[in-house]
Amino acid sequence: MSAASPIPRTIPFRTLDRVSGAAWGLVAVLVLVGAVSAFLGAGEAHGRVWQALLFNWLFWSSVAMGMFMLAVAWQVVEAEWPWSIRRFALGGVAFLPVSLILFPIIFFGGSEHFFHHWLHVEGDPVIEAKRAWLSLGGMFTRDLIGLLVLFGLAMVFTYYSLRPDVYGAGRTGGQKSMYARMTGGWRGAAEEASRSRGKLLVLGVVLGLAFAIIWGMIGIDLAMTLTPHWFSTMFPVAFFMAAFHAGICATAILVTVFRRRLGIDQFVTATQYHDLGKMIFAFAVFWMYLNWSQYVVIWYGLLPFEQEWFARRFSAPFTGFAQAVPLLIFVVPFLGLLSRTPKKIPAILAGFATLILLGNWLERYMLIYPSLYEAEEGVAAHLPFGLTEIGIGLGFMGLFLACYLWYLRTFPILPSPATLAAAPPAVFPVATAAAHADH
To answer: What number is the average pLDDT over the span 102-113?
Structure first.
């Protein structure tokens, strides 16, 4: 990364002071649109509403986990340059409880639609050979346990990230009460910061392994098994790395939207945007590398079971989306962010990040719908995409924004000098152990 950003000796305590009625109204409208879209689409054939719920759950949960894992990665490597934006990424954790609540509803509500290829099939030697894995009860149990472990570790990591910075703070009764519970047994700012840093470094390594294994397993169970004859060892890797890439892009957008509203724009510099832009660019290239590596081996191997997955996506009615996904995630960002200047301009970088997120959303769609699509005989292929998919996606966006706004209202977005001072002097040489200003 580029040269270190200066760390001020006095760092203000910043939470989002207020959320306007218009903002909450927009969130409510988005959630209502999602609910109405699900209700109106409930009568559509082939369980289309459940497919829309599944791919949107995969996308928004991946964005939340990707954001959180970005904060974990920065913590583990003790990166100095994102000191003022790390907690924007950490805020993805706020959506995880909602994701956990929705998971069993979507899983069991749509299981007959998602897994009908293998759920009641007998006499298929390929599926019979996978019976140890393709069990509805076993799948739900391992996925639920995996999510509980992963999300639980995320909550513990978030607790130790925030604990050193909230002692004695809080502007409202509820906020003060939460902070008091979080800081029970307080040992002093310097000791708490040092203790938390040690725990975060250990938790970060564990979380990195857990994210790769568990989120890869979620991709296998909820996406790859929809085409039960097909498998790819690259699929879970591409799945969780796409989530990480989406998290970087979402963080760039949220930093751009909220930095001035939080009154911290003086701490978010062009240098940090440049480094964030380099990460977005690098993972766009890496996304293409992973997917090309998966594609080229399968395509030239000429194995029919392996080619089926790509053939479904390259054929009508999904051809246009199959072309749009790499265009949005790789081609346009590669050309647009190749030079230095676009990475340093917040609006431009956020624009490219938005295009990548749109591409990731379509990618999650393409993981689900082609595997379940059944063309009617004698009827021209019709793309199953419209108000149902868009409306439910907007509903998920509303839920995500509601959780994120709560996070910004509740917790400080900047670390305290004590937290920064707990890192090795070579990382944060300027920070002091002084308390937050402007409590």
So the answer is: 95
